[in-house]
């Protein structure tokens, strides 16, 4: 009987021991699982802390990401292939603004119409002007109807006066196409990112310095491409490249102006000018119809070449544009 009791006691002790080991193993598994969860949460936190920024154009996204790096998410309003002149933001885009830390404007036409709606979508959103401190130049184009030559001197004086008051004069918004002006925009963006996220100032400052070096290198490369060209004029559909032309001592001749197609008299004038200046390339933009460009090119036996002022890879695009323009001027 005693032997049986000993055996029973031993069995109970073994059973208890297994239970204790099992409980400890479960606790270790729970602790390990809890630790893994904490690690995953820690890893995911940086993305949650990013600044959500909205810009108007793809080139602006390039600027902001160069300075913000991994600390920013950038949403673009004007979708690829669309024109910044006539773009209308989608309802979903306006709704998404509620999650933005700031809106970075640049002065393109659609902003003038939609900025109030953008503010109403997120009343607290700071509106940052990346072009602060930049003196804009007037848009230059064939904006007078050459078929109507009955204007008096008094009419022209009146138009000029209205232009001075800003009622009819249009200022060129394409400031992102100038490397020299891009440095000002980069500095403005840096200052605002520091205001929004001061704890990461050192990172933004380092990124800004790297970007400024990139811009200066690009500027030098483009300058060299135009150093030995024989001609300085180029003809293009939409006058987007005024600042670029100013930077590198070029002359832009536009076909369209402020959304108005060239009249038959203007086309005749352009054909005459192209022949006089020995222009054999007509440039166009992918966001606009090329019908008028093709008509003009056919009349002077010229090639049509695309220049995209809204390309996403800003630095690479400007270098390619310089290549195309300089080749046409040899």
Short structural description:
With 330 residues, the chain is of the alpha/beta class. It has helices at 2-48, 58-68, 91-96, 109-121, 153-164, 179-196, 201-225, 242-247, 264-276, 291-300, 314-328; strands at 51-55, 72-76, 102-105, 127-129, 233-236, 251-254, 281-284, 303-306. The strands form two sheets. The chain has a four-stranded parallel beta sheet, covered by helices on one side.
Description:
By secondary structure, this protein is an alpha/beta fold. The chain is about 55% helix and about 10% strand. It has eleven helices and eight strands. The protein has helices at about 1-50, 60-70, 90-95, 110-120, 155-165, 180-195, 200-225, 240-245, 265-275, 290-300, 315-330, and strands at about 50-55, 70-75, 100-105, 125-130, 235, 250-255, 280-285, 305. The strands form two sheets. Strands 2-1-3-4 form a four-stranded parallel β-sheet, with helices on one face. It has a four-stranded parallel β-sheet with strand order 6-5-7-8, with helices on both faces. Strand 1, helix 2 and strand 2 (about 70-75) form a beta-alpha-beta unit. Helix 2 (about 60-70) crosses helix 7 (about 200-225) and helix 6 runs antiparallel to helix 7. Residues about 1-45 and about 145-170 have low confidence and may be disordered.
